[in-house]
Amino acid sequence: MKKVIVFLLLLNFTATIAVGYTIYKNNSKKPYEINIESPSKIEDEQFKANVYEGMNRLMMGQNMINLRMLSLHHFAKPHGEDFYEHCPECQLEQQKILEEQKNNITFSAGVNEWTF
Fold it and tell me: Which residues contact 70 (CB under 8 A, 6 or more apart)?
């Protein structure tokens, strides 16, 4: 069984080398011709517009990924006293807490603790 596998591997190897050599010989006879045309002003402006639009989409996508990554902390570590500044969900929750405490008589926005 080992001899058959080794024979098939060697046969595959030699066939690959033979095909590669044949393709190389056939293509090496033809010289490559490369023609480069300078783009027109309209094509150049369109290319720049496409690049700027692509970069804008990339940056917006990265921004959305960062916001989603930031909002993952709600599942990993629910709010205690920690509110993240740039997290939209934290800001909404903090705003809701402030709205509830606004009507509270004992609430003082500038004082965290009672002092006597």
Answer: 84, 86, 87
Q: How far is residue 107's CA from residue 81's CA, in Å, rounded to a whole number?
A: 17
In 3D, which of 115, 109, 105 has the Cα closest to residue 94?
Answer: 109
CA dist 93 to 57, 69, 80, 85, Å?
29, 18, 12, 12
Residue 91's contacts (CB-CB under 8 Å, 6 or more residues apart) are 83
pTM of the predicted model over 0.70: no
Provide the CA 106 distance to its chain's centre, in angstroms: 48
One-letter amino acid at 61 equals: G
Q: Tell me the Cα Rg of the chain.
A: 34
- Is a pLDDT exceeding 90 seen at residue 7? yes
Higher per-residue confidence, 35 vs 79:
35
d(CA 56, CA 62): 10
